[in-house]
Every structure is written in structure tokens, then in C-alpha cells.
């Protein structure tokens, strides 16, 4: 018996099925690794992904540089090869460029620039995002003008071919690169003519593309921004700022002068100053002082906009506001702005309103806004979202983009709106949504995403909605607990997860399968087909192994029924049963292994399934391993009766009356002829009223194996044309077998 603490020892699965395969030991040591570095780290919140999901083909392991990778990627033809190469990109190429030890900014920029030429939307998007991150870490002394201009040209040429999400990122990156180039021009007079010529060529190129109908608004905004930049002349203060980067910090006097004259200074000039502040944060031993200067200047500019100056550069104002948001994200992540609530509430609101305005070139806010608002106090966060007036759909879209950025390689199938299902809400506007997609090498997964509530109001919701919310929360915690070190073949894998503070985003992705066990049994029945005894016994053994695995980890399932299992196909004539539902499972660490958490709340099975429930769960609200054994006895009968509910034979009475007889009279299920006597006797032991008399998982397993060995010989001697399906209940009782449970 594997119950209790210590290392899990699987039940013996050495029996051979009728199809000839030997079922192997089901426990694997598949580990979770950091989704960004693909290493096992001390990080406890994620994002994490299973190591098996990022496996790459051996022939691609020799591709180390971006140049080699792009050359090979653009020659592959099959989708399977592209997926494998994409995984190699996520696991090897991207981490090598984003490693903290990799300090060659210029070389990194060149490598990312090469990746932009890759004929894959996902890789191009990640290259753009990493370029954006690099902007805030650049060292001008090591950066070459040629590299910046090359990157600028690549980004501009890609804008029209990018989808709207990636196009927003491209517009943001282009504006940052232009500002960097302007700074290089002022600090390197010898290259001024070359830089201006390149910017002029870029402006003409973008303007010509803006005349096209597709995505014209975005290109027009970029063209306006470039035109505005070409006329810009850096002030003496701007030159002084960049030349003083070697100093420990900017003087308070200088910052105050800048703030007092902020209404006279152009948007481009402020953009340059703020970028300079962020550059100094990286090198200054007093980063908090620089962060305060950034906050003060940004706040002063956005609250003292000049109608005449800023109207002429409307595109640049939008880009500046967006830059302020992204700069704040960097400073909040480094915990340099956490105490500046005035900046958070007023400055972020104004900047976000500009980015969200009808004239904005952006479809959405930077998705990291969700993270910012989770790090400031809730009243200020609620105020920001209320002032923005974002719809629930737009807010959900931001959260989805944030998680996609946190977990490279996550693809949501088809469009977002077609695959989203709002399944659970709480009164504080928090909700769990479910989407379909894939993560790297994984099969199709259900991506369950918790959208944090940010509104100050309270929702009036139905109790069932809130119960579903907590059911999914519980499922997430259970999966994290049981799969932290081991994976089990008969338990659905959690491929990836992401969990931060309670007010922020949480996500987990679980494998899904085409058909549940219950639906599988119904389908066999509808075809007047039948399943072999080998198939039935093997599925029961697999399900028992899953139950034994969670019991070893002190998990009480409370929902063991055929509908909680699915069938996974692993090739022709190779199917296995997998436990997929954990919504009502609980972690029980009480002495004696008994829990009184949870109730059988109704007789319609909307919570804990009534007809499957053990007497002590009804009478005393007790749920433990033995109550799960009672339920498993009914699952065995479901398999042999092709999906019949418990007590189907009593078709003239409702569930309430049936359960009264079970509790008061010791009613036991009827022995249908389709259930062999050995199986019926085994299930009756599971239905003992005294939990102590019910068999253990190991005893049930041994009994199933012994019965299997004995019956295989008997079945071979029977008439091959005799149909065991004829033993399935008929007439009204048979019709009741077809009723689907709520």
C-alpha cells in the first residue's frame, strides 16, 4: 500500500492487455523549469513549464547563433519541423541573448535584428519584445550607430507584415530606437549627417507605406513622429544630461529647473530626458534618486500639457505617454517607485488615457500595466482602471497578452473571443476564464487564467458562480501540490503555471483529451458495440493507480466517477485512462486522514455527486480515502454497464428516495448480468457501511488482477459470437442509463 508519507511506490502494473502491450511504471520525474531561462531555479511563483514540453529535436542542437538559426528556419517546410525549431529558439537561442551575464549590448542588438528576418510571427514578436527590454539597459559607449540604424530599418520594414498585437510592439520599439539615434547624433557630431540621412530615408519609406489602406493609421502615426523628430534640435539641457551620465546623480537644482520649464520644452525633449534618467538608473549607485526624478518630470509634463506645442506633435505625445508607462514598469519591477502613489494615481492615469485615446496609434495599453496596478495599493489601482473606463473584454485582452509574454511559446488557438469561456466570478470582479491552445511541444491544453478584479464596486453574483471560482482555485493548488516533483501517466499533466501575488494574474494549463470515459462508454453503447474484458480491467487498473497516487499525497478527490476521467490515445489500439478533474479535491493533512471540509449540498449533483457519495459523507460530512473507495466501486460498475448511473434499476424513484434507502436500509446496487460475479462481489466490499471494512487500493488492485487471470481462460472457452452486450439493462432501466448527469 502506498498511502502515507515518503516516496510514492506505484501499484504493480505488470499485467499485459489483450492488445499485447505491457503497461509501464506510470511515475516520471518530469520537472518544472523557469519559462524564461529553462533552468530549475529557486523561483516559487513562476512562470514555469514542464521540461518535456520544451524538448527539441537533436538535429537542431548545433544551432547556437541567431544567424544559423534563421538560415535553417527559413528552409524548413513541415509544420512539425517549424514547431520543433521554434522550441529550440525558446529554449536555447532566446535565453542566450537575454542572459544577465551577456553584456555586449551591440552584439545582442545585432543578433535580435537578425531574428526579425525570420519568417515566423512568434519569433519576430519575441525579438521585438527583447529589443524593447534591451533599450532600458543599453550602454551608449558600446553601442554602434550602424547597429541601431540596421535595427531601425528592420523594424520599419516589418510593421506592415505584423499582426496588430506585434505591430503595437513594433511601433513602440521604432520610436525608442529613433530617440536613441537622436541621442547618438548629438553626442557624435561626426556621424550627424549620416544619421540624418538615414532618418530622412526612413521617413520617406514609412510615409509611402502609410498611403496603403491596410494599417494606414499606424504607419501615418510613425511618419508624423519621424517628421517631428527631423525638425527637433536638442537643447543645451539635453546635451548636459547625456554628458553627465558618469556622475552619481542629477542635481536637485537641475531637476527643479527642468520641471519649472516643462511646459516650454517639446515632447521629444522630454522623451529624451526621461530615457536619460532610465539610462542613469542602470549605472547610478543611487537609483532611487534617479527614479524620483523620472517620476517628477513625467508627472509635470503630463499634467502641464501645452495645447500649441503638443498638438503639433500628437503622435510623439502618444509615444511619450506610452514610454512613460513602460519606464514606470521597469522602475516598479525594480521596486524604485512603489511608494510614489501620487505618480501612480495621477501620472499613470493621464499617460494611460493618452495611449487609450481615439487618436492613439495603439490598439491597447502596454500589457504590463496589469502588473503595475497589482503592486500599488488597491484604492489607487481601482482609481486608475475606473478613470480609463476599459471594458472587461479589453482588460481581459491585456491580461492574456501579459501571460503570453511571460510564457514564450504559448499559442491560443484561433481568435481570443472565440475561445474564451467565462466560467467563474467573484464579487470583487475577479474571474477565471478558460481558453484552448498549446504550449510548445504540448498537446492541446485548457489554459485557465485568473483575471484579477480592479474595480471598486461589488458585483451581485450567483452562489454557483463563486463556488465555481473556488473550485478552480482549489484545482490549481491541488495540481501544484501533487505534481511539484513527479508526474503520473494516469493523471492529467499541468504543462505550465504562473502564480504571483493574490491581486495579480494566475494561470495554469492542463492537458485535455478528446473524450471523457463516460462519453467513450456511451459511444460504444450507441454503436451496439462491446468492449473486451481486457479493456475494462485495464482501464479500472489505470484509474485505481491515479486514485492511489493522489491518496499518497494526502488528496481526497470527492468526485470519483466516470465523468472525471478521460481517455488518452497513444497510438493505434493503445488507450489509457487519465484522471482529469480536481475541482472538488481537497488536501487533507489532518491526523487520521479524514476531512470534514465540503458538503453534499444538493441532490442534483451540481456539487459533490450524490448517487456516488458514501453514507458517512452524507451523515457526518466526512471525506477521506475510504469515501473515495466507495465512489470508485461505482466507477467500476459504470465501466461494466457502459455508463449506467448508480441504482439505475430503481427507475421509478428519484435520487432523494434512493439515497434514503441507501442510508437507512443499506440498499446495495443490483447485480446486472453484464457485471461478472467476481466484479460484483468486489464492488460490494467497496460499499461496506463501515469504512474500516472497505478494501484498500492495493487490495482492489490485486482482486482485479486475480479476476482478470481467471476470467481470461473462461472467456476463451465461450462462444465467440455470444454478445455480453445483451446483458446490459433493457427497457426503461436501459433508457435511464443514457441520461446525462447535470
UniProtKB/TrEMBL annotation:
Keywords: ATP-binding, Nucleotide-binding. It comes from the Eukaryota. GO terms for molecular function: ATP binding; protein kinase activity. Residues 417-708 form the Protein kinase domain. This is Protein kinase domain-containing protein.
Amino acid at each position: 500500500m502506498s498511502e502515507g508519507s515518503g516516496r510514492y511506490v506505484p501499484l504493480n502494473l505488470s499485467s499485459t492487455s489483450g492488445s499485447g502491450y505491457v503497461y509501464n511504471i506510470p511515475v516520471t520525474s518530469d520537472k518544472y523549469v523557469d519559462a524564461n531561462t529553462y533552468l530549475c531555479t529557486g523561483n516559487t511563483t513562476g512562470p514555469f513549464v514542464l521540461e518535456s514540453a520544451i524538448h527539441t529535436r537533436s538535429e537542431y542542437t548545433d544551432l547556437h547563433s541567431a544567424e544559423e538559426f534563421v538560415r535553417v528556419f527559413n528552409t524548413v517546410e513541415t509544420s512539425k519541423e517549424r514547431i520543433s525549431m521554434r522550441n529550440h529558439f525558446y529554449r536555447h537561442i532566446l535565453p542566450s541573448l537575454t542572459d544577465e551575464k551577456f553584456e555586449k549590448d551591440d552584439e545582442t542588438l545585432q543578433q535580435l535584428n537578425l531574428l526579425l528576418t525570420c519568417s515566423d510571427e512568434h519569433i519576430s514578436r519575441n525579438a521585438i519584445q527583447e529589443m524593447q527590454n534591451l533599450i532600458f539597459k543599453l550602454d551608449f559607449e558600446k553601442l554602434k550607430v550602424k547597429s541601431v540604424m540596421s535595427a531601425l530599418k528592420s523594424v520599419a520594414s516589418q510593421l506592415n507584415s505584423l499582426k496588430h498585437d506585434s505591430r503595437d510592439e513594433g511601433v513602440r520599439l521604432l520610436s525608442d530606437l529613433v530617440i536613441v539615434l537622436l541621442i547618438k547624433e548629438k553626442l557624435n557630431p561626426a556621424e550627424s549627417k549620416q544619421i540624418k540621412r538615414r532618418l530622412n530615408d526612413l521617413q520617406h519609406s514609412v510615409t509611402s507605406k502609410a498611403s496603403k489602406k491596410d494599417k494606414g493609421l499606424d504607419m501615418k502615426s510613425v511618419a508624423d513622429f519621424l517628421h517631428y523628430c527631423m525638425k527637433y534640435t536638442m537643447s543645451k539641457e539635453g546635451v548636459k544630461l547625456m554628458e553627465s551620465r558618469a556622475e552619481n546623480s542629477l542635481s536637485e537644482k537641475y531637476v527643479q529647473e527642468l520641471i519649472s520649464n516643462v511646459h516650454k520644452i517639446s515632447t521629444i525633449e522630454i522623451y529624451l530626458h526621461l530615457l536619460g534618467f532610465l539610462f542613469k538608473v542602470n549605472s547610478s549607485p543611487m537609483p532611487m534618486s534617479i527614479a524620483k526624478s523620472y517620476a517628477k518630470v513625467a508627472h509635470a509634463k503630463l499634467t502641464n500639457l501645452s495645447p500649441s506645442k503638443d498638438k503639433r506633435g500628437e503622435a510623439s505625445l502618444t509615444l511619450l505617454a506610452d514610454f512613460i508607462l513602460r519606464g514606470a514598469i521597469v522602475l516598479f519591477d525594480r521596486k524604485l517607485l512603489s511608494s510614489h502613489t501620487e505618480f501612480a494615481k495621477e501620472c499613470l492615469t493621464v499617460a494611460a488615457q493618452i495611449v487609450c485615446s481615439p487618436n492613439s496609434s495603439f490598439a491597447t495599453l502596454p500589457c504590463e500595466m496589469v502588473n503595475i496596478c497589482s503592486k500599488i495599493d488597491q484604492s489607487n489601482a481601482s482609481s486608475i482602471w475606473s478613470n480609463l473606463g476599459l471594458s472587461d473584454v479589453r482588460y481581459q485582452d491585456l491580461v492574456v497578452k501579459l501571460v503570453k509574454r511571460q510564457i514564450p511559446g504559448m499559442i491560443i488557438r484561433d481568435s481570443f473571443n472565440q475561445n474564451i469561456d467565462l466560467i467563474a466570478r467573484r464579487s470583487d470582479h475577479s474571474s477565471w476564464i478558460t481558453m484552448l491552445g498549446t504550449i510548445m511541444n504540448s498537446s492541446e491544453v485548457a489554459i485557465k487564467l485568473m483575471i484579477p478584479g480592479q474595480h471598486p464596486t461589488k458585483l451581485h453574483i450567483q452562489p454557483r458562480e463563486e463556488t465555481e471560482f473556488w473550485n478552480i482555485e482549489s484545482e490549481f493548488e491541488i495540481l501544484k501540490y501533487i505534481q511539484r516533483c513527479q508526474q503520473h501517466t494516469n493523471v492529467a499533466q499541468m504543462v505550465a503555471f504562473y502564480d504571483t501575488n493574490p491581486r495579480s494574474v494566475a494561470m495554469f494549463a492542463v492537458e485535455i483529451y478528446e473524450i471523457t470515459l463516460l462519453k467513450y462508454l456511451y459511444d460504444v453503447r450507441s454503436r451496439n458495440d462491446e468492449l473486451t474484458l481486457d479493456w475494462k480491467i485495464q482501464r479500472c487498473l489505470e484509474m485505481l493507480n491515479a486514485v492511489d497516487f493522489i491518496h499518497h499525497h494526502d488528496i481526497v478527490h470527492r468526485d470519483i466517477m466516470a465523468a472525471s476521467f478521460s481517455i488518452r490515445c497513444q497510438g493505434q489500439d493503445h488507450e489509457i485512462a487519465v484522471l482529469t478533474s480536481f475541482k472538488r479535491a481537497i488536501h487533507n493533512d489532518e491526523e487520521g486522514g479524514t476531512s470534514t471540509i465540503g458538503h453534499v449540498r444538493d441532490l442534483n449533483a451540481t456539487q459533490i455527486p450524490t448517487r456516488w457519495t458514501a453514507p458517512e459523507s452524507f451523515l457526518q460530512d466526512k471525506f477521506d480515502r475510504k469515501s473515495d473507495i466507495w465512489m470508485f466501486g461505482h466507477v467500476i460498475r459504470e465501466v461494466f454497464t457502459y455508463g449506467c448511473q448508480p441504482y439505475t434499476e430503481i427507475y421509478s424513484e428519484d435520487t432523494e428516495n434512493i439515497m434514503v434507502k441507501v442510508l437507512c436500509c443499506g440498499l446495495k446496487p443490483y447485480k446486472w448480468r453484464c457485471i461478472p460475479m467476481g466484479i460484483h462481489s468486489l464492488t460490494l466490499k467497496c460499499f461496506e457501511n463501515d469504512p474500516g471494512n472497505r478494501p484498500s487500493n492495493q487490495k482492489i488492485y490485486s482482486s482485479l488482477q486475480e479476476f482478470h487471470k481467471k476470467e481470461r481462460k473462461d472467456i476463451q472457452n465461450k462462444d465467440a459470437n455470444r454478445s455480453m452486450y445483451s446483458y446490459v439493462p433493457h427497457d426503461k432501466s436501459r433508457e435511464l442509463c443514457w441520461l446525462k448527469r447535470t
